[in-house]
Amino acid sequence: xxxxxxxxxxxxxxxxxRNLAGIVSGEKDDLVVVISAFGKTTNALEIVLRTWxxxxxxxKDHLENIYDYHDSIVEELFRSDNPVKIRINNSFSDLKNxxxxxxxxxYDFEYDQIVSYGEIWSTLIVSEYLNITGNxxxxxDIRKVLITDERYRDANVIWDITSDNVRRVFNPESSxxxxxxxxxxxxxxGHYTTLSxxxxxxxxxxxxxxxxxxxxxxxxxxxxxxxxxxxWLPDARRLEQMSYREAVxxxxxxxxxxxxxxxxxxxxxxxxxxxxxFIAPLEEGTVxxxxxxxxxxxxxFIKKENQMLxxxxxKDFSFVMGDNLAGLFSLFFRYGIxxxxxxxxxxxxxxCIDDERLKIDALMNxxxxxxxxxxxxxxxxLTIRHYNAEAVEHITYGREILLEQRTRSTVRYVVRKL
Length: 418
Description:
Elements: E1 2-6, H1 14-25, E2 31-35, H2 41-53, H3 58-77, H4 84-101, H5 107-115, H6 117-132, E3 138-139, H7 159-169, E4 177-181, E5 184-186, E6 192-194, H8 200-211, E7 215-220, E8 241-243, H9 244-253, H10 263-268, E9 273-277, E10 286-289, E11 300-314, H11 323-334, E12 339-344, E13 349-354, H12 357-367, E14 371-385, H13 389-396, E15 399-406, E16 410-417
Helix pairs in contact: 2-3, 2-5, 3-4, 4-6
């Protein structure tokens, strides 16, 4: 058994789906294919959600644009009498009905009920295209298999129930090829959940772990893992091999090429991860394993944008240690705020977090009686693994450094452009 994961960029149009079918048809082992929403569908559904929550009728136009996008792909891939068109129409009708009749609830809850449709539409279309091209498969609704708690937008998997479900549903005796969704799950009460943005990687890793897969391949629009985002540093180079530990360091620092939770399920069972190009599938890509062959180490550059640097100072000048520190971090968790960098002194604590104003405002309201907060918005975290002086100069030039952290192998900066 192997697990393939295709991201949104690889299935953004009809040609991408044809390319996927070509890759899958060459696979001889039993296979589970995990697929993200088409292109930028998740972003588009987020706009639908936001306008709907704001009582703006424009959500209907945004949803209609999403429908037209999917319908155009269906028209290009299938004959007019193919039943997939009816299934897509019915699914869109279900979402429209929810938007018309449901009472607006908590934002995170509604996010998962609405945005999760993107993966359903993409997999219905891909599964049917594989069937008509001779790649017979079983389409599986992962929301009924991958069971989570009710922590919406960042759900935790209930492992024992999910494991039993996965082994029962993805049984090679039923089919040699399965198509399912990444990113989404479901609760025992029947509501939809998501595993946080880019969570399709994590889905693939979970399935691989439970099914004792031989390997996992992520098919992306890059030739493998690179030492920088090429949209930021055009001279980025491919990394031939990487250890699990190095991959965890990269994802923790903000590298978007792999979801942060992906590595642990693979490392636990020593399952190799390959990151390859869907454009050039025969090229080597990058392999992530426990003990890579020793190669010449080059600096790895990671940028995390849309950050806010906040300094919390206790009004009574108490030390920010012990109970104070524990209390602060429990509040971060309660409000769903992920701390990307932290530095504590005797009377203050600096944290760098994603700039999510609704969550931050709620946190500030809770803390305003005990703490003074000073913040800088529109900042970035720049990280260099295996740094040297030239690498530091390369990415900090023209930026104001607000905070710096160094270890033997990693340097991190919170910066603002001058």
